[in-house]
Amino acid sequence: MLVLKFFNLHWLEEAHRQVKYSGKNLVEIGTDLGYLIQAHFSNAFKKQFGLSPKAFREKG
Known about the structure:
Order of helices and strands: HHHH
Oligomer: single chain
Helix content: over 70%
Shape: globular
CATH architecture: Orthogonal Bundle
CATH class: Mainly Alpha
CATH topology: Arc Repressor Mutant, subunit A
Number of domains: 1
Number of strands: 0
């Protein structure tokens, strides 16, 4: 279970970097990081960082 938490955190940190610094669309970022259902990606991102990926990107 700890290994899964580690990888989930790693994927979310990578998602955070890509949302902030890349021009990729959010669906592509989620899919590239293994989230096949966009809502799961958005919910996990929001739980970790307090904002959805879309709100985080818009905030700038």
